[in-house]
Amino acid sequence: MSNGRFLDERQRRILLALAGTWVLTLVVKPVLAITILNALITLVYVIVLLYNAAWFRQSLKVPELVQVSDWEARSIPDDELPTYTVLVAAYREGNLIADTLLMLELLDYPKDKLEIKLLLESDDSQTILAAMRALAGSQIRIVHVPAGQPRTKPKALNYGWQTSSGELVTVFDVEDIPDPLQLRRAAVAFQRLDPSVVCLQARLQYHNASQNLITRWFAAEYMTWFSTMLPALIRMGSPIPLGGTSMHVRASALRTVGGWDPYNVTEDADLGIRLHRQGFRTLILDSVTFEEANVDFVNWVKQRSRWYKGYLQTWLVHMRRPLDTWRQLGALGFVGFCVVVGAAPVLALLNPICWLLVIIWFIGHYIQIKAVFPGWIFYPAMLCMFLGNFLAFYRNLVAVRIAGRPQLIPALMLFPIYWLMMSIAAVRAFAQMATAPSFWDKTMHGLDHRRVADGSELRWQSPPISR
After folding, report:
1. I need a surface site. Which of 155, 295, 393, 428 has the fewest CB within 10 A?
2. Tell me, what DSSP letter sits at residue 5?
3. Domains of the chain as residue ranges with CATH
């Protein structure tokens, strides 16, 4: 269950057999071969549309969030709180590390129960020196992660976690501004929840949502994902692709699943699937961590291509024994896993091709297109295109309205441009799958125009969820 091998031997044989059969058919009967391929692609789109419709319907219900009030979080005596480990992996973040440490110091948790590890690559001298200057008098500990491949965040997390003592473990990113009471909320929630609940995912939002058009799109997408869609997935019994930060997990469960996969570039999503396969449950904690939305197109594409590549890796790993995955996730959970994790990067790659074919068809009604799109394929495909795109737009509109952020609605009118950006990222992801599967595309942080050197403008404030 590691991406250390891109494909196992069985997957390699099956893929080669299918590809060889299709290519042979393409040579002998090209129209038939392309028609079969179109039928399979359309079937995937139909399944995704039906699942997304059910998923959206569930998302319209009031989200079932784990709520712990400020009073309840502060009222529990310190000696009744569990020990906590906070892991923060950073690489080439010397310009940001002082702000990071400031945010970590604001966490409201008893110091004798809190272990904070700053995981820095041993050859990243700039970040190490900046951290040492900022750490004067702090209990935060620097852990030097040995240089070597794979140079990934999950490798650093595993290295730091192996010598940790916390009963609960969480991860923060360097640009995070977490709710200061988040650790206390999670600790209280775990005490009152069933032991089968081993993971709590806090909600993520962006503190620079209004900086430019890209950040507005990104913010709307995050509001949809963490405030409506993830709670709906839980209600449907599907596995939860965790966020890369602010997921709080019992250390015992983390040991059971073997920690993080160092070769997977979305180690968070993979961990969520492995926890679910072991029979563990994940819920959403009503606590917010603010992150920095990418403001730059190139930076955004690098990050999104890494996410898509990691989703592909996760899907391939858990499809090595598909019957085992089906049995452990259940039928609906298995479909949800394939739609949410497997289909997302694939359809992002295929979407512009399908859009182009539709445009060409309406322009010229070319007989070549009609030959490979008979009516029994054409009409379901067109239905998926129009309803699917409408649903993708409408669910973001609903989420923004629920969150009380109407100022983001004008940006949503241009959302098809954002979808095209996703397709560009998907092309890059598939190319890297073939050339550099475990390469970690570095995301540049600290581009938010509101950040200042002493971090004085970076303070946490809670956004309400209203209905």
Report:
1. 393
2. S
3. 1-467 (3.90.550.10)
